[in-house]
């Protein structure tokens, strides 16, 4: 019923007509309110489902974030370990290099010392050989002189050892 359908009486609108109008309007508003409530409940359900799906996605993302942080921490730890290991290896390498250089230097000094000793021995041997050669030259000259003297003192003058 609409407002223009209200029945008029002598003193204004009739009570039953007004009550009927109010009741019909209440029904219309109640239906609209029920529809709005149903729509609101549907929207609330949709929003609640959306909230739940977003919360689930948020939980998953937090788990992923935590896993990524753990992996990042592991990578950082691995990098720090690698750096310290590299520094330690570098230090060990330097120590080994220094030790090897010292051994090479000592071996070189020993070899140079041995070469110097050989030089001294060679020089002494040369002196001995030269002295021996000089003594042999002297002895040979002496023997030649004696042979010459014997040859001159011999009666024939031409002695032959194998005649």
Written account of the structure:
This protein is 85% helix and 2% strand. Strands 1-2 form a two-stranded antiparallel sheet. The chain starts with 7 loop residues before the first strand and ends in a 10-residue tail after the last helix. The longest helix has 139 residues. A hairpin with a 2-residue loop joins strand 1 and strand 2. With 163 residues, it is mainly α.
DSSP strand content: under 5%
Q: What gap, in angstroms, lies between the N and C termini?
A: 184 Å
Task: Classify the oligomer.
Answer: single chain
**Structural class assignment:** mainly alpha
How do the helices and strands follow one another from N- to C-terminus? EEH
User: Radius of gyration, rounded?
Assistant: 65 Å
- Describe the largest sheet: 2 strands, antiparallel
Helical content (DSSP H or I, runs of 4+): over 70%
Give a short synopsis of this structure.
With 163 residues, this protein is an all-alpha fold.
